[in-house]
Design goal:
It is built from 8 helices and 11 strands. It is α+β, with helices and mostly antiparallel strands.
């Protein structure tokens, strides 16, 4: 998916800086994901222009993220997710390539379907190793020895971040998504867009949710970690994700029909 058309549309959005974004971190929130053809993103952005501001850093409005997911040797976090464990964790290093900043993050889905995230800044970016601060951070949050965790998946993507006028909602749009591990060539998904609506309460329907409904796009759970792991790793229980892969095939066919 080329970003030229998208960047042109984003020029018409009012910007918001990182400092002002601090008011909408939403580390304890309701998440709702939507999976769609990347070809629909320009239309969606056009529909949203006026109701949202776009994150801008150094005159840039689309940012490259690099993520290293950590898991156990037997992929415990993956199994918890695909088998529907109500309270589950993901552990990852995320590097914001524009600023060069890396965080170690724990992302927890609670049994009340909320997402809670904790993170610390780190100079590391691949494994816990001898990083005492990272080990202590993880020991407080996950019920296992952090030394059991190893890099399980590498993921990169471009992200656009929108904020509503009241700073009560954040919308992220991920494009150009790729996966790899230490032994595989990158697998790219240029046809795929992932929109995530993040808000502190579920009491209001956002403009993004209304626009997606107009486009006949419904919420759909989607884990980049689980999908990527099932593609590039020799991993158990991947057949549970069969419906997700059928959905991806349908989106891929839709995208390439639209760009012929």
């Amino acid at each position: 998916m080329k970003l030229n058309e998208i960047n042109s549309i984003l020029e018409h959005f009012r910007p918001v800086g990182l400092e002002e974004m601090d008011g909408v971190k939403l580390m304890n929130r309701i998440d709702r994901k939507y999976v769609l053809s990347a070809g629909k993103i320009p239309l969606l952005l056009t529909m949203l222009n006026g109701g949202y501001r776009v994150l801008e850093i150094n005159n840039t409005r689309s940012f490259l993220y690099s993520t290293t997911y950590l898991d156990t040797e037997d992929y415990l976090f993956f199994k918890h997710h695909v088998t529907g464990k109500l309270e589950r964790n993901k552990v990852r290093y995320r590097k914001y390539e524009t600023t060069g900043t890396t965080f170690l993050e724990v992302k927890r889905k609670t049994n009340t379907n909320r997402t809670v995230k904790w993170r610390i800044k780190t100079e590391n970016g691949t494994n816990i190793g001898n990083d005492d601060a990272s080990g202590e951070f993880l020991s407080r949050l996950i019920s296992m020895d952090p030394d059991q965790l190893k890099p399980a998946l590498f993921n990169n993507f471009n992200r656009i971040t929108l904020v509503n006028g009241g700073l009560s909602e954040r919308v992220t749009i991920d494009l150009n998504i790729g996966f790899s591990n230490n032994n595989s060539d990158p697998v790219e998904f240029p046809f795929l867009g992932i929109v995530e609506v993040k808000k502190g309460a579920n009491s209001f329907r956002s403009e993004t949710e209304r626009a997606l409904k107009e486009l006949s796009i419904r919420p759909s759970g989607f884990s980049k970690y689980c999908i990527g792991s099932a593609i590039v790793n020799d991993i158990p229980r991947k057949n549970i994700l069969k419906q997700k892969f059928l959905q991806l095939n349908k989106i891929e066919n839709e995208y390439y029909r639209s760009v012929r």
